[in-house]
Hints:
Layout: H1 3-55, H2 68-75
Amino acid sequence: MAPEDLEHVVAKAVGAAIAVVRDEFDSRLKSVEKRLATIERKLDQMNDVHKWCAINDNVQLPVDDSTIDQGANVADGQALI
């Protein structure tokens, strides 16, 4: 095999490897971004509940994750179910 041909084959292999790594990186990045968006949404819900509870002194704050969504409904003016 001529050196030029070998160089071309190596360049194609490196390019293919870079594409695979880039695709894997993009996939993992999307997964992390999705998780962060979920965390941000839950933090926003908790902040809404804290604000609502600060205005309404007689209401206890939710103490576990299972009540965050219900607490957010209260902050939106809806009753807990």
